[in-house]
Amino acid sequence: MTRIPNEDRDIIEKAMYLPMVLTILERDRLIFEKAPFKLKPPYLNLVEKTIKAVQKDFKEVKLEMRKGNMKVEQVSHDQEFTQFMFYYKGYNEQHNYFNPRLRNKAQELLEHYLYKRFNS
Hints:
60% of the residues lie in helices and 20% in strands. By secondary structure, the protein is an alpha+beta fold. It has one domain (6-118). The protein has a three-stranded antiparallel β-sheet. A hairpin with a 3-residue loop joins β1 and β2 (81-88). α1 runs antiparallel to α2 (41-67) and α1 packs across α3 (99-114). The protein is elongated and about 55 Å long. The N and C termini lie far apart (35 Å). The model has no long low-confidence stretch (mean pLDDT 95). This is YhjD.
């Protein structure tokens, strides 16, 4: 049983997922820079603006975590699971996440930041 309320757990999970999205975007930016596109700037601009939007949200999440005395760190990972330690107001809890779930959530967030956020 977790002692962390759903709203705060959502904040902690954002602190897990947003760095993953940033890593994906940074790698994609490098690929776009090296790819033989005729017109690279539109693709690079899209990725750059998306990175800035994710960084802005991540900064807000880190602020909320600091205010709420929360912290998350990755403890270990293997082929199937990644283990995180959640620190919440003096308590700590270990959480295991199925790697395909992490990948699917990162993909969902990537889609949101790349184009779905403009439709909201």
